[in-house]
Specification:
Length: about 220
């Protein structure tokens, strides 16, 4: 086997372990997941976990790096645009709203995709008992998104104090992530078999514009 072939095979094995570990950790939790179960789910020899990652803990951290990179790949361009707008002089309010809706709409699309089911379960577990994996996710992705949205809302709603700006941002994000964490109940309430992403985004965009109406200073 050539060097390139061995590398491709190694990359394939590593990817298979990451995908299997994402599912097993999400379903069983860190302590409930065994390296044997992960290896079986990936259809590889258990010893390859040690070869590629070194330990179960390192594999768990690698899963969160993989999730973070996937989130960045999907959302970074929109967040970059908002940050560039904040640095530019006199950007029209409608331009901010359009990009802000793009960020929240993109997040809503992610929430209803099957691939994010296990990501969400893992992130929820980590937020209930934050550890190094959550810290890395927050520093690389969550914190950046929240900080950028906070700066945008502060710019659009100068009458609000810092606390209310942050609470408003949390309200905006909350109506997005509910489509993952409470999806089954919401779909039953609405009588949907599958989420209607266009209806979700239309309601979301309307709510964002209502939330961003400047409130009187307290």
């Amino acid at each position: 086997m050539s060097k390139d072939s061995r590398k491709r095979q190694g990359d394939h094995t590593r990817d298979a372990l990451l995908k299997a570990a994402t599912r097993v950790f999400a379903q069983a939790g860190y302590h409930g997941a065994s390296t044997r179960a992960i290896a079986q789910a990936a259809n590889v020899n258990q010893a390859l976990i040690g070869y590629h990652f070194g330990s179960k803990e390192a594999l768990y951290q690698a899963v969160f790096v993989s999730i973070t990179e996937a989130l960045e790949q999907r959302m970074a361009a929109r967040v970059d645009t908002l940050e560039a707008m904040l640095a530019a002089p006199e950007v029209p309010r409608p331009s901010y709203l359009a990009v802000l809706e793009g960020v929240c709409g993109g997040m809503a699309e992610l929430m209803v995709q099957p691939e994010t089911e296990y990501w969400s379960q893992l992130i929820l577990r980590e937020q209930q008992q934050p550890g190094p994996a959550f810290e890395a996710l927050y520093e690389r992705f969550m914190g950046r998104v929240l900080d950028t949205l906070t700066r945008v809302v502060a710019h659009l709603c100068p009458a609000l104090d810092r606390r209310d700006v942050k609470l408003l941002v949390v309200s905006m994000i909350g109506q997005v992530i509910v489509w993952r964490f409470a999806r089954a109940g919401i779909q039953r309430h609405l009588g949907w078999q599958q989420p209607d992403i266009e209806a979700i985004k239309n309601r979301l965009f309307t709510n964002i514009r209502l939330l961003l109406q400047e409130e009187p200073a307290r």
